[in-house]
Amino acid sequence: MPEPVLETRDLTIRFGGHVAVDAVSCAFHSGTLTAIVGPNGAGKTTYFNLMSGQLTATSGTVLLGGQDVTGLGAAGRTARGIGRAFQITSLFPNLSVIENVRLAVQARQRQAASLFTRWSSHADWIDQAQAYLDEVNLGAVRDTMAAALPHGDKRKLEVAIMMAMEPEVFMFDEPTAGMSVDEVPVILDLIHRLKARGDKTILLVEHKMDVVRSLADRIIVLHNGKLVADGEPAEVIASAVVQEAYLGQAPKAPAAGAAHV
Ligand SMILES: Nc1ncnc2c1ncn2[C@@H]1O[C@H](COP(=O)(O)OP(=O)(O)OP(=O)(O)O)[C@@H](O)[C@H]1O
Questions:
Q1: Same domain as 243, residue 114
Q2: What is the mean pLDDT of residues 234-240?
Q3: What's the mean per-residue pLDDT of the chain?
Q4: Atom of ligand 1 nearest to the CA of 55
Q5: Confidence check: pLDDT of 122 > 90
Q6: Where in the numbering of this chain does the ABC transporter domain appear (predicted)?
Q7: Is the distance from the beta carbon of residue 49 to the nearest atom of ligand 1 less than 6 Å?
Q8: Of the residues 125, 143, 166, the one at which a domain ends
Q9: What is the pLDDT of residue 8?
């Protein structure tokens, strides 16, 4: 098995007396899409925040490409290849849609720049930004102020910005939440295409099990901050631990091959 792109070892965070993420050890590999599921308050978003650097762990380790990044903040981890769509908060509301993406293209090139890199022109940046916008179906509203976009389009713009950073790890936290029925397929199709590239590590927090089933190669389940199941989607969904802890039901049939816990 090749070295994981991203790994957590005994990752833990306490808020006062509450352990929101409790000694979670898990490795994520290139070319895979892992869905993280669990009931409300299970610790999914907190686990994401610990991996992307928005929160600092109480104990445990985060490794990115085999390097310990536990001490790095979010900006440092972004520079090393973690991409996350941040539910609107990272948009520049008073810039146009295309300028928002152009800044991300430029930031990525600045990170990659060396003495020997030829700087791209403003026109190149705009062309690249337009290509990312087309991927999320926002090409037609490129000159609209970000603030004026409807909610679903703001979320698509977040994804375009993340793609423009060309990260190794893509983190999606409920990517279709708040989207209208006709917008959902655009984002799901995009995630399918990213996955089809076969060289990215994709993490998805998602409540909708039909979305999880259609996208995930693997499911991990968090419950009360602990990793309680990890395995193939069909196996994990059928397992007693998911039926009881996540779906709140007793299993209909004996669990077909309990998830390796
Ligand atoms: N900054 C914080 N301070 C105190 N408690 C927090 C903080 N952030 C999260 N928590 C608590 O940690 C637990 C895990 O929250 P988290 O948001 O990670 O769960 P989740 O699985 O993402 O839930 P949901 O599916 O509802 O989004 C919850 O009990 C939450 O109240």
A1: no
A2: 88
A3: 87
A4: 1
A5: no
A6: 6-249
A7: no
A8: 166
A9: 98
CA of 49, closest atom in ligand 1 = 18
State residue 94's pLDDT score: 93
Higher pLDDT: 132 or 260? It is: 132
Question: Do 64 and 36 reside in the same domain of the chain?
Answer: yes
Give residue 20 CA to ligand 1 midpoint distance, Å: 7
The CB of 45 under 6 Å from ligand 1? The reply is yes
Instruction: Look at residue 226 in the predicted model and tell me its pLDDT.
Output: 96
CATH number of the domain encompassing residue 14? 3.40.50.300
Query: Nearest to residue 70, comparing CAs of 80, 84, 82, 56?
Result: 56
| Domain edge (last residue) among 166, 192, 227 | 166
Question: What is the whole-number distance in angstroms between the Cα of residue 150 and the centre of ligand 1?
Answer: 27
- The residue-averaged pLDDT of 53-57 equals 96
Does residue 228 share a domain with residue 111?
A: no
Ligand 1 pocket, 44 CB below 6 A? yes
Average pLDDT over residues 118-139: 86
The residue segments making up the domain with residue 204 are 1-81+169-261
ipTM over 0.85: yes
Query: 91 near 103, Cβ under 8 Å?
Result: no
Atom 18, ligand 1: residue with shortest CA distance: 43
One domain, residues 106 and 75: no
Same domain, 103 and 154: yes
CA of 60 to the centre of ligand 1 (A): 18
Compute, in angstroms, the gap from residue 41 CA to the centroid of ligand 1. Answer: 5
CA 202 to ligand 1 centroid distance, Å: 22
For residues 179 and 260, state if they share a domain: yes
Whether 86 has a pLDDT exceeding 60, the answer reads yes
